[in-house]
Specification:
By secondary structure, this protein is of the alpha+beta class. It has 2 domains: about 5-85 and about 225, Gcn5-related N-acetyltransferase (GNAT) (Aminopeptidase, 3-Layer(aba) Sandwich), CATH 3.40.630; about 85-220, Aminopeptidase, CATH 3.40.630. It is about 20% helix and about 35% strand. It has helices spanning about 5-15, 45-50, 110-120, 175-190, 205-210; strands at about 20-25, 25-30, 35-40, 60-65, 75-85, 105, 135-140, 145-155, 160-165, 195, 215-225. The strands form 2 sheets. It has an 8-stranded mixed sheet with strand order 4-11-5-10-9-8-7-6. A 3-stranded antiparallel sheet has the order 1-2-3. A hairpin with a 7-residue loop joins β2 and β3 (about 35-40). It is globular, with a radius of gyration of 17 Å.
Amino acid sequence: MHPLHNVIWKALTTRQTEFAESCDQARRFLPEVTSLAAFLEPTQRGYDSLAGLLNPGGTIALFLDVPYQPRPGWNFVAGTPMPQMVYHNASAPPPRSSSDPEIVELSAADAPDMMELTALTKPGPFNRRTHELGTYLGIRCDRKLVAMAGERLKIPGYTEVSAVCTHPEHIGHGYARILTTEIMQRILSRGETPFLHVREDNVRAIELYKRLGFNQRVLLHLAVLRKG
């Protein structure tokens, strides 16, 4: 079985246990960190365990191997096919150019700006403590955060590139490439392999990731569910 199989579960039971809430065969990240959750297996026991982590009306996001099928007690909120891509390039990403804009490391003080940008661009779930999961980098223009990228899921030997986004008014300057490359280099410098998840309909992003050396490993299915 590939190390990235059931990656949310693996993250919450290995490198990111400090962010986990547990109930029998289910785990979820602390709600203020992210809405991602997982179970050991997609069985009735798995869904029952997941329900034990939520109050009525609570929502979570799952990565499933197949499209979500209706289950009693759950309401389907949203979903999309989502390729999981892994870096396979034998050579390192290209170095930064001297003409590239300054990259700043983001912290808790930048959380409001990060949440504002992700709310606008919708790269995936992002809450006020998501930045605690790893390094997050940004580019500012006239003090405004206009692009960012960071690290989210972590399992032994692998770290996810996540929250890659650019303000619509600043697209076309290569900011996503610059920030993704820098995050990748930091992951590789630790002897780890970068991977990521992207919506299947985000063709522009997928083309960028392929140019940077990522290949699709498997097609997953994001499902956002609300407990009835």
